[in-house]
């Protein structure tokens, strides 16, 4: 993955959608809103020619949310004719290029947007992008488990998985996990406390776990789809009045296994606190699967199909723990954000180890049944 050079993002976007304006300007993530304003003004003037004489008094900024990797700003422009245009400016978190393939993200956005997903891409700049503003609230982890919303998320996810993104359809999951592994296993921390904790990790053991899980899931023949890969509550938005659900933020999107996207979503019921007692039970999972597999006739999905998707999802749910555990180690070293990433590694890896035996035996008996079936 390497440190993907951010400038090539501009080239990629231009080659994929020549009408998307781009600028090499960057906006310092750590500035206060009032100090950011002149920079955002300059950016708007450069990206959108109709605003080339825009006065600062016509521009207002507010923070929408700071994810644990991005900063989102709502930018409103009051035009001369009384019209107000709202946009979202997304600033990439510092050093996120170590874990995110921006090129892949920018290739996918125009196609996902055309299929009705996410916000429209309006412009690209050195360390971020400008998108249309979505008038909706961000979901919380408890929202995701409400039966009506769970059914809607499942239907939308099915549609999302049907979008064709040009380029290689090779599933990226294990490539990404091994890339994370090679970065995560060769870190050095300046603080001795962190270094001590880090040294308690057995990377040889993790490597064996990855190889074993990769082999076992290989026997499932899981469908490969263009997956969101980060369907946590913060990337789901709901307009309550229109009852319209939006998927946003495709920075981890790639071709991957269907079960990974669903299993990863179920892990997110636990929130950042990793309260895995909130992981959906079998009935809740089956409710989701029915609406995913047959949105028109959910009650007619066969037991056999439900069972197969249950095994696939929960096998790949284990992969999701490994993926984000390794990701967290890299963030612990690279990210300036005040979050206990090292602690997060242990929460995810311990959960993997706790669940592994049961799920492996479930997976093995399913694979042997379907091969003799």
TrEMBL record:
Main EC class the enzyme belongs to: transferase
Pfam family, one: Choline_kinase
CDD domains registered for this protein in UniProt: ETNK_euk
Pathway listed: Phospholipid metabolism; phosphatidylethanolamine biosynthesis; phosphatidylethanolamine from ethanolamine: step 1/3
Annotated InterPro entries: Kinase-like_dom_sf
GO molecular function (one): ethanolamine kinase activity
EC number: 2.7.1.82
Gene3D superfamilies reported for this sequence: 3.90.1200.10, Phosphorylase Kinase, domain 1 (3.30.200.20)
PANTHER family: CHOLINE/ETHANOALAMINE KINASE, ETHANOLAMINE KINASE
Family recorded in the similarity comment: Belongs to the choline/ethanolamine kinase family.
Stated name of the protein: ethanolamine kinase
Organism: Cinchona calisaya
Lineage, uppermost ranks: Eukaryota, Viridiplantae, Streptophyta, Embryophyta, Tracheophyta
């Amino acid at each position: 993955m390497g440190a993907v050079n951010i400038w090539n993002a501009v080239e990629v976007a231009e080659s994929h959608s020549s009408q998307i304006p781009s600028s090499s300007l960057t906006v310092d993530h750590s500035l206060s809103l009032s100090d950011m304003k002149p920079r955002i003004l300059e950016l708007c003037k450069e990206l959108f020619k109709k605003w080339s004489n825009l006065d600062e008094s016509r521009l207002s900024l507010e923070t929408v949310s700071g994810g644990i990797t991005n900063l989102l700003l709502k930018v409103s422009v009051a035009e001369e004719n009384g019209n107000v245009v709202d946009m979202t400016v997304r600033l990439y978190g510092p050093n996120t290029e170590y874990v995110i393939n921006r090129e892949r993200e920018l290739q996918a956005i125009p196609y996902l947007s055309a299929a009705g997903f996410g916000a429209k891409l309006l412009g690209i700049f050195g360390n971020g992008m400008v998108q249309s503003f979505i008038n909706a609230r961000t979901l919380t982890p408890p929202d995701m488990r409400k039966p009506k919303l769970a059914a809607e998320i499942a239907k939308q996810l099915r549609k999302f998985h049907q979008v064709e993104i040009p380029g290689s359809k090779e599933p990226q999951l294990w490539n990404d996990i091994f890339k994370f592994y090679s970065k995560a296993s060769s870190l050095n921390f300046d603080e001795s406390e962190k270094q001590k904790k880090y040294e308690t990790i057995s990377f040889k053991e993790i490597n064996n776990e990855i190889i074993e899980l990769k082999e076992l899931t290989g026997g499932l023949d899981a469908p490969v789809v263009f997956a969101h890969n980060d369907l946590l509550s913060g990337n789901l938005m709901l307009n309550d009045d229109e009852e319209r659900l939006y998927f946003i933020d495709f920075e981890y999107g790639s071709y991957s296994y269907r079960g990974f996207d669903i299993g990863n979503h179920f892990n997110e019921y636990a929130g950042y606190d990793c309260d895995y007692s909130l992981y959906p039970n079998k009935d809740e999972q089956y409710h989701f699967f029915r609406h995913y597999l047959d949105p028109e006739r959910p009650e007619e999905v066969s037991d056999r199909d439900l069972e197969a998707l249950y095994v696939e999802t929960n096998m790949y749910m284990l992969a999701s723990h490994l993926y984000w555990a390794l990701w967290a180690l890299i963030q612990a070293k690279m990210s300036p954000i005040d979050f206990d990433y090292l602690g997060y590694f242990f929460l995810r890896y311990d959960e993997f180890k706790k669940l592994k035996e049961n799920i492996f035996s479930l997976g093995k008996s399913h694979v042997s049944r379907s091969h003799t079936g």
